[in-house]
Amino acid sequence: MKRYCLNLLGVVSVVFVLASCGEKKGSAPNPATIPVPVNLFEVLPEKVVYFDKYPGTVTAMMQVDLRPEAEGYVTGMYFTEGTHVTKGQKLYTIDNSKYEASYNQAMANLKVAEANQEQAQKDADRYNYLNQHDAVAKQTLDHALTALQNTKQQVSAAKQELARTQTDLGYSVIKAPFDGVIGISQVKVGSSVIKGQTVLNTISTNDPMVVDFVVNEKLIPRFVALQQNKAGTTDSMFTILMPDNSVYGYPGQIHVIDRGVNPQTGSVIVRLKFPNQSSVLRAGMSCTVRIRNEDTSKQLVVPMRSVVEQMGEYFVYIAKDSVIAASNKGEKQASAPTGNVTIAAQKKVVLGQNINDRVIIKSGLEAGDRLIVDGVQKLHDGSFIKLGGAEGQKK
User: Fold this and answer.
1) Rounded to an integer, what is the distance from CA 85 to the centroid of its chain?
2) Domain parsing of the chain, residue ranges
3) 197 — phi, psi (to 5°)?
4) Is the CB of residue 63 less than 8 Å from the CB of residue 202?
């Protein structure tokens, strides 16, 4: 029995050794040594046209909220909402009964004061005549002249009161302060309004319109130069993208650069002016300001899909040829390629302006570099690569 157990143990040992040898011989290769199929893009300088983009807001050159200077009930509306109105056009009327009554009373007071002045003038003339013939006491003449002066002051005060009530009466009619488009009324006929508080409506100019956007203070010299050199700018220097991403049909020009820089943000407001005959631009509309680049030098532009972001920094991979000798391979790289090979080298880059699905590279690449554009997700610095990605070689 003991001999049988020893023989069985020997058989098991032999089987284990053979199994171990077979596993080592058929072991899978190290994944890091398998070349990754990629596509390449030859980086060459080219002349590009792009636009610097800024978020903007459409604003009317003139806009005002209509507030009443009289209190009462709205008695009439004399315009169509959303249409063009002209300066001086009657828009609203407010119940003027109490203002009209005050005006009539002031008119009556003025007539009384003028009558008193006329009587006082006659008395003064009479006593002055008698005084020339020593027929009246000097004191009586002085009283008559003082009474005349008082009545003149009363007439002046009555005229001032009449003018004030006339102004109040005029405030019961609200007129357009300038040519423009009037909005949707905030009150209706019969609504009660409070002097200086209730907003009746808003009126604004609509042609031309302006677009405000904010730029960094470092760019002030550039925009000042563009403002002063209007004749040298192209028609497409300043354009805007509408909310639906369509390009507005008319170019603009710099209207004004704000007088000062915001010290908290280090930025300044620039205002562009655009024609608006078709009334497409509306106050408060959001848009994207596009400023055409003036750099005529050639630049390196690469597909955006070749760029990898890591911790706020940007990297790309380029293909580099190398030679690996068999004697230099370690045990872990026993299955790695030998001889002439191509590896991926990681490069840190600085990005410039996006141009659709491409991006300008400011630094980090050189003309002639073979950029890896497909398969970058499977790469690391030093990965073995081979041509043959899903789309073939790119140039």
Assistant:
1) 28
2) 31-47+297-387, 54-61+204-292, 70-198
3) -120, -50
4) yes
- Residue 205 pLDDT greater than 50, yes or no: yes
CATH topology of domain 54-61+204-292: Elongation Factor Tu (Ef-tu); domain 3 (2.40.30)
> Which residues lie below 8 Å from residue 84, measured CB to CB, with a gap of 6+?
179, 180, 181, 182, 206
Its CATH architecture, for the domain 70-198, is: Orthogonal Bundle (1.10)
Other CB atoms within 10 Å distance of the CB of residue 306:
24
pTM higher than the cut 0.70: no
Q: Which CATH architecture has domain 31-47+297-387?
A: Beta Barrel (2.40)
Taking the C-alpha atoms of residue 66 and residue 85, their distance in angstroms, rounded to an integer, is: 13
In contact, 40 and 319? CB cutoff 8 Å:
yes
pLDDT digits (tens, 9 = 90+) for 14-72: 444 344 444 444 455 555 567 888 888 888 888 877 788 899 999 999 999 999 988 88
Query: Residues near 118 by Cβ (< 8 Å), separated by ≥ 6?
Result: none
| pLDDT of 90 strictly over 90 | yes
Q: Which residue's structure tokens are 């028609």?
A: 235
Helix (H, G, I), strand (E, B) or coil at 348: strand
Q: Which amino acid is at 354?
A: N
- Name the DSSP letter for residue 235: T
On whether the CB atoms of residues 338 and 324 are closer than 8 A, the answer is yes
Task: Dihedral sign for Cα 92, 98, 101, 105, please.
Answer: negative
pLDDT tens digits, residue range 300-351? 888 888 888 888 889 988 888 876 655 555 554 555 565 677 888 888 988 8
| Omega prior to 208 cis, within 30 of 0 | yes
What pLDDT was estimated at residue 339?
Answer: 60
- The DSSP bridge pattern shows strands 180-182 and 201-204 to be antiparallel
